[in-house]
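Team,

Forwarding the record for the chain on the shared tracking sheet. I've put the sequence and predicted structure together so nobody has to dig through attachments.
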Amino acid sequence: MRFTTTVLSLLCLALAGNLAAQPGGFGRGFDHSGPRDGAMRLQVLAIALDLTDDQIARAQDLFSEFHASNAGSMQQRHQQHQELRNSLDSGNTDPCAIGQQLLQIHQAGEAAKSAREGLRGSLAAILTPEQEAKFDALEAARQSMPGLRGMRHRGGRGLGGDPTDGGK
């Protein structure tokens, strides 16, 4: 329990520092998808899981590959959400059009979820069994705490989560 409390405290401090240092502040417009955000997560994981230098380098490569391969889909989801907001703001309440936009967003979200699960699996593969158990415990604790659930922003999807879904 003390380990989990210490790690969660470190995660909160790291997240708060990262949020405060961002040019956009705490609200929308805060870009969570860049390598800096991944670097912060990696630093926290390195401390919490006592990663070796080799594991850190491999995890850094995994985060970089994830962001490179998913940047386009993240931008597309952001655009889809913006189009939906614009439709609703303009008074376009055609249920078919709105429903189609929601289906596209949902499908893109499922693809993003699959990509995140792939990243999590790749990260778990470089951990020792003891580190993986700690990682699983951290994920479980993060999921059980509404304020930390996303560790990205407003209830996002955690490790490698999609920053464009507005925490939904």
